Amino acid sequence: MSTEQLPLDKIMAGDCLKILAGLPDSCADLIVADPPYNIGYKYDRYNDSQKHEDYCAWSGQWMRACQRVLADTGSMYVAIGDDYAAELRIIGREIGLTLRNWLVWHYTFGQNTKNKFARSHIHIFYFVADPKEFTFNDDSVRILSDRQKQYADKRANPAGKIPDDTWVVFPRVCGTFGERAEGPNQLPEALLARIIRASSNPGNLVLDPFCGAGTTATVAAQLDRRYLSIDISAEYVHKARLRVANTLKPTAGYKLDGLSPLEMTELIRLYQENEIPAGRLLAKPHFVALFTEQLNRRLAKCSQTQPAAISPERIALALQCLATKNLLPVLRTDQPSLRSRPR
Ligand SMILES: C[S@@+](CC[C@H](N)C(=O)[O-])C[C@H]1O[C@@H](n2cnc3c(N)ncnc32)[C@H](O)[C@@H]1O
User: Does domain 3-247 sit in CATH 3.30.1490.20?
Assistant: First the structure.
């Protein structure tokens, strides 16, 4: 298959090894892989209780297949639980990928355990094909630094800081959340958005060999990337296609006069990541101005056309409106009595 014949904006049903084998070399700018973790999870068409050696051998096969289709300047993120993190990190080195970050996603709303400490994190390896040439859009992921938030320190970089490698602001997607889709083990959309904005550009191809509920494709479509996702379950593929179609409807997301659904979605994500409660944020025009600059920089990386800048006044109005309607996400800093419902 030539690059011109690439299946773009598609979610394909089948074994990722077979489908990847049919793709041309170096065609994907960003790969996000969230495979089954071999922990006995119940999937529609996959047995998640493989022998240790078999799981490791299979992991080597799909990681190699992904590495072949990864662009020379591409990035590959691999999510994995504790049990196989060490093995997958070594496979990454063996196949020639360079690790830029060993990220840890620490999530709230973990599941209870009876006789051991509750699981509350996964590992996400951020690999690149070439350690010297890769996309990293720092302006699209920056958040306010403590110097800006706590100390009003004039030495602070006005653009804010790049987030740490431990990601603590994205809760696990629970059944009550607005973004909850049908399908297995869904990652949060805001987490995928951080990865996609940072490591790809609008119009780039984002590939996901383990589509599941379709989170990667959904967010890639929201952010004006091309997507190609694969899942062995035809049922999951069907549901993921519906999810992507829904996210692209003009009626999707929150509506507010003057802001598009994408602008609203990114505003809510920025609010969640900056962790400044609405009352404090709105009381300080300086914060609103910094917030607005960050949002405009992010939005510039979310579309192939240059968006018009949004003013601080419109941002303040939108935040006020979202707060009044109880539509802002719960922050770790919120007092329990003041918490809005999870989204
Ligand atoms: C952890 S889930 C992915 C969840 C996804 N990241 C999301 O946010 O919705 C892993 C998925 O891999 C799929 N899978 C397992 N083996 C596969 C294979 N050989 N080829 C393609 N998909 C496979 C499973 O059906 C499952 O949907």
Answer: no
